[in-house]
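User: Quick sanity check before I run a bigger batch. Here is a single chain. Can you write out its predicted 3D structure?
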Amino acid sequence: MQNIPQVKVGVVAVSRDCFPESLSVNRRKALVAAYEKKYGKGAVYECPVCIVESELHMQQALADVQAAGCNALAVYLGNFGPEIAETMLAKEFSEKVGGAVMFFAAAEEDISALADARGDAYCGMLNASYNLDLRGVRAYIPEYPVGDAEECADMLHAFLPIARAVYALKRLKIITFGPRPSNFFACNAPIRQLYDLGVEIEENSELDLFEAFHKHDNDKRIPEVVKAMEGELGGGNKQPAILPRLAQYELTLLDWIEAHKGSREYVAVAGKCWPAFQTQFGFVPCYVNSRLTGRGIPVSCEVDVYGALSEYIGTAVSGDAVTLLDINNTVPKDLYAADVAGKYPYALSDTFMGFHCGNTCARKLCGAEMKYQRIMARSLPAEVTRGTLEGDIVPGDITFFRLQGAADGKLRAYVAEGEVLPVKTHSFGSIGVFAIPEMKRFYRHVLIEKNFPHHGAVAFGHFGKELYEVFRYIGVPAEEIGYNQAAGVRYPTENPF
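Assistant: Done. Predicted structure follows.
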């Protein structure tokens, strides 16, 4: 995938001066060996500096991991650890590198260690967490952050997608074109919360985009892009005449991104797609959006800035393409009775259809076909609505999620795991039959209660744990992260009667 960073985690062992330094050194070596045996080399750098209770050693370790090109830090308590030096390291790394930091600790190996080689890192983690809070330093701490070398290797590996998203957000620019369409107040995008996250935004007019598009008239690269589109679509190329204009638009966006990302390394786009887009450009941009999103450059519909941001976070976490869908319509009772009831463990109210006009990348659709936008074609000539990529979304595990800058100045988010069922939709667009346990209650007491818009990002796989940790790390309060409560667990606003 393009447009997301490669993570290199510096593993720094810490040691309190009244404990044997060798204990932390040997446990660090065992951790790295266990990691490389299970997950391979490349993502982890073992810092040879072992910190004692010293700011000087902290500075040496910081310089070492920076010189090694680390963009994430794992502070490993091989023994009790020095809460001052270790949390100073976390603070300095966060400020100078802008990467994520995790803390975890070594368990005692066996009975023989208890006599005179006990590390007491179980205790030291408490002091570390307290001092992190005193310094106002955010850090990822696993759910149970103490374990043997193999268990800590798994914790370290679980940190990678979180670190990738956190690092990328501080280097992300969202480029927008045009205001959101009329009657789309739900897609409002207060900028302050973006700045709080470290995300930059560049807002442009649709006229700017239109001018740039026409500057690409007769671009010599168009035939090459058309050929790539034809290869991707194969037998689904049902609107071949529109491909040159779509290729021209794709080149316009890519050139704009390259010219405007400025000091930022990564980019997402929130684009305009109606009401005047199709009449002026002569097509809809859905297929181009799908192609860029499939490469790791999310392009949201309807100038949904936080939708684009959510998509980007999902791409960074999953390392795969995501999509942005309307939480759109109910599943008809006859479709449920014929294809879901008795075959899958879901009530009718657990199911819904996720839909957008045609923005999902081809490899996430079954039999993708180039078509036209049926809703727009009700009031416009069908030829100007060509450009959608349509098909049923591939069945399998998904995570529905969103990060939202709310109108009250807060950040809110939700995460819900579920699946796309292998059920024919009998409909149009990029669409699937989704099933999320207890969706009915989640819909009412999270999506409606917390004023989330109708757009939700979809990651292809179960990434709820990682996304939840990313949202917490970047500052979303735990009480503002919604999820689908299990049956019998009441939401705060749920009527107890």
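The domain at 9-169 is CATH 3.40.50.10940 (Rossmann fold).

User: Great, the batch can go ahead then.
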